Amino acid sequence: MPESSHSSDDQTIGRVLSRREILARLGGIGAALVIGTSFTDILNEATSEAPDPVHAPTTIGSAVIGVVEPQAINGPFRIERALQRSDITDGRHKEGVLLHLGIKLFDVSSGMGYPLEGAQIEMWHADPNGLEGNLHGAQLTDAEGAALFTTLYPGWTAGRAVHLHFRIRTHPTHTFGYEMQSQFFFDETVTTKIYSQPPYRARGLSDVTNDDDSVFQASGGLLTLLPAPDNRHGGYTAMIEIGLLLGEA
Q: Smallest Cα–Cα separation from 199: which of 149, 236, 156?
């Protein structure tokens, strides 16, 4: 697979702010981000029919559940056209449980939340058999700061909790921008349910829980997905909204 997913897979670029830091840096909106009911919580309750995660209405003050501080970088970066796709299953829909993942990005630098258009979100993860990195794709966010991926619920790899790698580049074709690289994790109750089904059942549960995973601990659990069953599209749907603290690019 492309060079971006080799030994640097577990490298973290930028950082996730703790709840205390969100309150200190963002003031009033920070309180809303910490105590508000997130869209993900609502989605997790939609056990019979999950809504479209990209076009569902959201309120920035109550929906963002993660705030990150990316790292300033020099560009531009070549956009891999072969990776630009929303369906990264490689046609292997029958080999696992579908996961529809909506990601929305917001610039919260001013204390307000503005959709971040034109950022590149790259994602890669293990397939249901635990083979790392062979499900891989990228998209540019739309005018709502949104991108929707269809993939397979990840399998686990030895020594790690179940996770999904992602990289955000705010201005991929500019000479200067910001980059964030980390991992999404999964609600373990959902994982246990999915791993009771084939083909996941043959491997059983991961040998590491979220709480024992160092990358999960570093994120404070704020990059945890809560997938809900999706009867309209099949499989599960999850949504995560991320606020980025940016300087002037």
A: 156
Alpha carbon 218 to chain centroid distance? 15
Least Cα distance to 179 among 65, 14, 16 occurs for: 14
For CA atoms 147, 151, 156, 157, the dihedral sign is negative
Could you list the residue range(s) of the whole structural domain that residue 138 is in? Answer: 10-244
Spatial contact of 53 and 226, defined as CB atoms under 8 Å apart: no
- List the one residue out of 66, 62, 39 whose CA is nearest residue 183: 66
Q: Under a CB-based contact definition with an 8 Å cutoff, are residues 230 and 50 in contact?
A: yes
Q: Give the helix/strand (H/E) hosting 42.
A: helix 39-44
The pLDDT tens digits of the residues spanning 206-225 come to 999 999 999 999 988 889 99
Spatial CB neighbours of 101, under 8 Å, sequence gap ≥ 6: 53, 123, 148, 149, 150, 151, 164, 184, 225, 237, 238, 239, 240
Residue 161 to residue 156: CA distance in whole angstroms:
7
Residue 3 lies in a domain: no
Residue 89 lies in a domain: yes
Q: Give the count of domains, the chain.
A: 1
Q: Give the whole-angstrom CA distance, residue 12 versus residue 199.
A: 30
pLDDT tops 80 at residue 120: yes
Which CATH number characterizes residue 147's domain? 2.60.130.10
